[in-house]
Amino acid sequence: MPGAISPALAQAAGAATAPLDVSLRINGTERRLSLDPRTTLLDALREHLHLTGSKKGCGLGQCGACTVLMDGMRVKACLSLAALAQGREIKTIEGLAQGEELHPLQAAFIERDAFQCGYCTSGQIMAGVACISEDHAGSPQEIREWMSGNLCRCGAYDHIVAAIQDAAAVSSSKQEG
Amino acid sequence: MHPFVLERPRDLSAALSFGAQAGRNDAPVEYIAGGTDMVQLLQEYVRRPDRLVSLAGVLDDGIEIGSQGLRLGAAATMAEVATHQAVVERFPLISQALLNSASPQVRNQATMGGNLLQRTRCPYFRDVGYEACNKRAPGSGCAALDGENRWHAVLGTSDDCIAVHPSDLAVALVALDASVEIRGAGGDRSVPLSDLHRLPRDTPHLETVLEPGEVITAITVPANAAGLRSHYLKVRDRASFEFAVVAAAVAIEMDGARIRQARVALGGVGTKPWRLPNVEAALAGAEFEPAALRQAAALAAEGTQGRGHNDFKIELMQRAIVRAVEIAGARA
Hints:
Chain A is an alpha+beta fold. Chain A is 37% helix and 14% strand. Chain A has six helices and five strands. The longest helix of chain A has 20 residues. In chain A, 42% of the residues are buried. Among the domains of chain B are: 52 residues, 2-Layer Sandwich (Uridine Diphospho-n-acetylenolpyruvylglucosamine Reductase, domain 2); 103 residues, Enolase-like, domain 1. Helix content of chain B is 28%, strand content 21%. Chain B contains 13 helices and twelve strands. Chain B has a five-stranded antiparallel β-sheet. In chain B, strand 6 and strand 7 form a beta hairpin. The longest helix of chain B has 19 residues. At the A-B interface, helix 1, strand 4, helix 4 and helix 5 of A face helix 2 and helix 6 of B. Chain B: Keywords: FAD, Flavoprotein.
């Protein structure tokens, strides 16, 4: 029953919370951490590395605010245990710009006013970067389907779709050029 | 989350030695693969293992097509399988079912084995604030029987549990006669996917036939399922990133204006992925015209039991079968 913990379990709990040495590669830098095994990748980023760009919305994989790239692919950081992300290349919103130069999708979000409160924005941008690199940004309809893992409570969807279209056009003109 | 020891074994035999039980909801030792369902359930205290054994890097993630058919390593992700060219071309039903599942992020993380073993979306199972759930706490009762049961099963239910098995992939695979390869301390065995999940009966906390320590290592699909005209029709409350209210997986072979053979399975309505041999038998030899399809699909209602809010599924699933067969038959 919730709350009732037997002495044996409590003892196991003491052993269980012994920290694990975890080495994470975040935005090109190796970071060594000592973490409770229960720590999600999202909590490791936010609470231990103070990279608070990735947001915690639902914590259950439903909203997409925590989206980061793992080995180039978009994932939900709230559904990954940090200790199991060891050895993977993780990119967060903090690693997207080149110095002072914004990523084209970051610039497009500003240009298109693709947010209101901003809480979902870093997740939208990380998912949008993947949506473009996966070649799933061919039409507004395709973008809507392939961005369905990211919710926006303010309802800025029209502008988000427009921003992704803009950045996809920049990306394809670069490839063609 | 309940505190746990996290084991990161070097290889599969080391992983097996922990005796994790993937097939029941009250196990003290559990496996974790992609983690997309497990971490949710840990966060919500629905599953409270004392030890969690990671399968990362110890399971095959290959996708192979040969004369025997299709073999999907248990660690292959939903995204990898959904977009694999040979899967798209020869087993499009599998690709469609996967692309209609979850979100792009989850599809990059979730694995084949884990997808089959994901737990029901029954809100009473997933919320420990409800005391009654026989699946989560054996003997505690079922809050869904007299509760909000619009999403619940009409096939394979018992008075102890009416929870739906939520996987789309499993519905497509069961229609294609897939099997799972299983490895345990006692060796390897193969089980038809239709036998992997248990009916709830009076033990809904026992989800599958997996024995302690056993792990799914691969999914196999026989070659004779390749090249059929197929369609995965998913009816849901929103257009994307949503579980099925009703889903129909259909694969047919045509003989002129008639159907030679048909495979039909349903999702969203069964306590496990649900194959419909009676509908298939009625479709075999039937003319490809609406009245004949409706007559065959009506047999899907055999053995159904609605619980109030979900009564509409019994009619809806028949219509979904007809629509899916029509779309599949119209394909080139």
